[in-house]
Amino acid sequence: MNFHQKPVTYVGEVGLKVMDINKMKKFYEEIIGFEVISEEPTIVELGAAGNVLLKLEAIEGISPKQDRYAGLYHFAILVPTREDLGKILIHLHQNGIQLGSSDHLVSEALYLSDPEGNGIEIYRDREPEQWNWRNDEVSMAVDPLDAQGLVEAAQKSSEPWKGMPAATVMGHIHLHVSNLEDAKNFYVNGLGFEVVASMGGQALFLADQKYHHHIGMNVWNGTGIPALPEKTAGLHYYTLIIESEKRNKLADTLHSMGTEIAQYDDYWEVKDPSGNRIRLVV
After folding, report:
1. Which stretches make up the VOC domain (predicted)?
2. What's the confidence (pLDDT) of residue 227?
């Protein structure tokens, strides 16, 4: 099962509003290992093997994020193999990048931040057969990562680190929301995801077609937090890749829930109840 291609609904790319586009481009190219796919003075698209996974947009008069807002907790870059994750771990360590890490049972993950404070996860999945499901919920944990095992896996390869592998995708996005119940209602009833895991009334994980999660959401910034202001750096939007027929069906449901849908040539845009922008792309 490929959880990042149709008919599954999955996250395609993430757009960030940035203050210093040159510094951010350099970080994502040299430290994260993305390739520059297209570049204009105020917009840079980055990704792997020609697929755009991240779009940086310089917005004039933008200010840094200082207060507690809804928006990005982290976006998560999924690499194909354990060996790939080990190579990236070595590369990040050699570049003096501060890292967090975790074994989530379903995956192994590294955590870091970009120069403007946006959270990034880089992870690899264990095989779905190794995931443990109970009553439609998948078991996830925050266990210590076997970093030594990752490094050893990388060292078995004769190939050095050469940036993000060709099969890299945007694995999931994790959002700060202002109200967990409202967000759950929107994503489940409005966008057709199902809850696959929860953390004590503080966080929810949602997926399509039994992935461990395409979307995470939490209220760790506080309940009732405001939407990220237009002129504040951070999450601009993210895309959901969705089948055309499903998008049409969901549009009717979203309309009936009172959600406005702005229709453009390449995408339809909606906002979740916390003000996070979502572009629905077929």
Report:
1. 10-125, 169-282
2. 97
Cα distance between residue 21 and residue 194, in whole Å: 36
Residue-wise pLDDT for 125-172, tens only, equals 999 999 999 999 999 999 999 999 999 999 998 888 999 999 999 999
3-class DSSP assignment, residue 144: coil
10-281: CATH, from 3.10.180.10, 1.10.10.10, 2.40.128.110, 2.60.120.10: 3.10.180.10
Instruction: Quote the distance between the C-alpha of residue 78 and its chain's center.
Output: 9
Checking if the pLDDT of 1 tops 90, the result is: no
Amino acid, res. 110: L
Domain boundaries, given as residue ranges, for the chain: 10-281
What's the CA gap between 100 and 114, in Å, rounded?
13
Report residue 81 CA to chain centroid gap.
18
pTM over 0.85: yes
How many residues are present in the chain? 282
